[in-house]
Amino acid sequence: MITAQFDELIHPSTRLSIVALLAAADWVEFSFVRDQLSLSDSALSKQLSTLEDARYVRVERPTNGRRRRVHVRLTDAGRTAFRGHVAALQAIVGVAQSRNGEAQPR
Amino acid sequence: MDVPPLEARAALDTVEKSRLRVIDEIGLPQWYWWGLALGWIILGWVTDLNYPWLTAAATLVFGAVHSAVAPRVINGRHRSNQLSVNADIVDRHLPALVLGGLIILAGITVAGAVAISADGAQHPVTITSIFVAVVIVLGGPRLLAAVRRRAVRSSARR
Question: Which residues face A68 on adjacent strands?
Answer without folding.
Answer: A63
